[in-house]
């Protein structure tokens, strides 16, 4: 079983968590070409064009999530020895290790590129599942040695993706172990070790000083209880004194989105990369066993997909002599020489939804600029900034379960009596630093021309007055 295999585990020195113990099967997964590709994918995509130190990769983040998943299991096991088996812990660790296996070059930008060109709703989680199959097939003996069953592998996939395509519900573990699904990628409250690792790593990489909340304190004050809303389902719940810690976590996330992931210049560079990838798409090919794939199609074949990295794409654009690549080359040159698109304005508080396609609005802006300046219309594009605290408009802290300190804090019994669970009203009363605003959403208007002209400002003003008359507009002198 799992116990005999500990002989060939490995210790790795991580720059955030210190020494990380890696179980044998995870060592084998890490030592595959599929996993090693994460070393050449920047965790924050093109953000290093704004914060030069942010060149850390998906590779070390994945190790960190594996580690924290294991730590959380160990801490919960102290109070609930019968609820977490060694195999549960191993599955959680593998889920953490492989949760980002499917990310494309330039991070989330790749998803935007593929969706825009192919008009599909492809996501990196889908690719993670396919590549997980690949790494497990490469290590069949070790999978057998760890006694992983078909059900365990389904469980690992569900940890990454939630309910699998074509299935009605979760099948890897029963309702009595539902809390395990909240550790790596929490689909209910969004509080999970994936976030905790990237908060620490991204602050370290960018140099952004954040009041990084204390995740170890939160883990130590976590219990398992029956879900107050779903009979028989177990959930993670936190001590009532942790309400402000959880609130701090969301403040940290919003702050990182504002100052880093969705920084105005990050948005500009992302848009330039998106344009560049679109222009290069038909001229760069990846071939696998005689089959050719364009960039926007490589995700359809896992073997082709694992051969594509950021540096390879940039190398192809720079070094190939195909004339069709000239427009992409010019854009790459502009990025390197920092001749970035100009920011004309930001239209504030626009009602936006995640993943909303702005192309119809871009079309409207284009029509306005062509009508007003038929001889020399400014060349516009739009980018959305959307920062939400959680999945809905509500403060996500209210979605969590908190328990009051009580005498019945018995070890091993995952049922806290109902009278010791805080109501939403009680949670609200305990929030000392709840934000007034749980979402920020605006649209940036960029101009592809080298100079931001009066024509560009005039067209933008007209666009805002026509389509967003109630919204404030902030003109940016860049």
Task: Describe the protein's architecture and organization.
The model has no long low-confidence stretch (mean pLDDT 90). The chain is globular, with a radius of gyration of 24 Å. Helix content is 43%, strand content 12%. The protein has 18 helices and 11 strands. A hairpin with a 2-residue loop joins strand 5 (285-288) and strand 6 (291-294). The strands form 4 sheets. A 4-stranded antiparallel sheet has the order 8-10-7-11, with helices on both faces. The longest helix has 22 residues, at 58-79. Helix 3 (58-79) runs antiparallel to helix 4 (86-98) and helix 4 packs across helix 8. The protein is an alpha+beta fold and 478 residues long. The protein has helices spanning 24-30, 33-36, 58-79, 86-98, 108-118, 124-138, 140-145, 150-161, 193-206, 215-220, 243-261, 264-280, 302-305, 310-319, 326-336, 359-372, 424-430, 454-467; strands at 10-14, 18-22, 222-226, 234-239, 285-288, 291-294, 342-347, 380-388, 402-403, 439-447, 473-475.
Q: For the CA atoms, what is the radius of gyration?
A: 24 Å
Largest sheet features: 4 strands, antiparallel
Count of helices?
A: 18
Uncertain spans, ≥5 residues at pLDDT below 50? Answer: none
């Amino acid at each position: 079983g799992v116990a005999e295999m500990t002989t060939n585990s490995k210790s790795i020195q991580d720059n955030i968590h210190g020494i990380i113990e890696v179980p044998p099967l995870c060592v084998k997964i890490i030592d595959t070409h599929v996993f090693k590709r994460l070393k050449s994918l920047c965790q924050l995509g093109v953000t290093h064009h704004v914060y030069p130190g942010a060149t850390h990769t998906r590779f070390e983040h994945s190790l960190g999530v594996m580690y924290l998943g294991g730590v959380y299991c160990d801490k919960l096991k102290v109070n609930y020895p019968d609820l977490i088996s060694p195999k549960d812990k191993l599955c959680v660790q593998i889920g953490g290790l492989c949760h980002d296996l499917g990310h494309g070059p330039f991070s989330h930008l790749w998803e935007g590129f593929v969706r825009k060109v192919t008009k599909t709703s492809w996501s990196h989680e889908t690719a993670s599942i396919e590549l997980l199959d690949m790494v497990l097939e490469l290590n069949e003996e070790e999978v057998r040695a760890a006694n992983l069953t078909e059900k365990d592998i389904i469980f690992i996939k569900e940890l990454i993706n939630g309910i699998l395509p074509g299935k009605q519900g979760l099948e890897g573990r029963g309702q009595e172990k539902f809390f395990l699904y909240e550790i790596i990628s929490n689909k209910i409250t969004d509080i999970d070790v994936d976030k905790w690792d990237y908060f620490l790593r991204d602050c370290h990489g960018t140099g952004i000083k954040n009041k990084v909340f204390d995740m170890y304190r939160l883990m130590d004050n976590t219990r398992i209880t029956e879900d107050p809303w779903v009979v028989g389902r177990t959930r993670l719940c936190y001590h009532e004194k942790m309400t402000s810690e959880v609130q701090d976590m969301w403040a940290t996330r919003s702050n990182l989105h504002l100052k880093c992931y969705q920084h105005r210049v990050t948005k500009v560079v992302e848009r330039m990369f998106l344009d560049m990838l679109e222009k290069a798409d038909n001229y760069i090919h990846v071939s696998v066993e005689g089959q050719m794939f364009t960039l926007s199609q490589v995700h359809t074949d896992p073997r082709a997909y694992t051969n594509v990295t950021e540096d390879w794409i940039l190398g192809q654009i720079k070094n190939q002599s195909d004339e069709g690549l000239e427009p992409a080359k010019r854009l790459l040159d502009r990025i390197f020489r920092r001749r970035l698109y100009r920011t004309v304005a930001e239209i504030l508080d626009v009602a936006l939804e995640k993943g909303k396609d702005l192309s119809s609005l871009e079309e409207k802006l284009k029509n306005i600029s062509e009508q007003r300046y038929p001889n020399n219309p400014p060349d516009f594009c739009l980018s959305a900034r959307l920062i939400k605290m959680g999945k809905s408009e509500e403060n996500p802290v209210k979605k969590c379960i908190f328990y009051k300190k009580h005498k019945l804090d018995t070890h091993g019994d995952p049922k806290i009596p109902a009278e010791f669970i805080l109501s939403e009203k009680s949670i609200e009363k305990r929030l000392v630093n709840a934000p007034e605003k749980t979402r920020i959403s605006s649209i940036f208007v960029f101009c592809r021309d080298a100079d931001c002209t009066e024509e560009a400002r005039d067209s933008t003003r007209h666009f805002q007055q026509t389509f967003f008359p109630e919204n404030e507009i902030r003109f940016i002198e860049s």
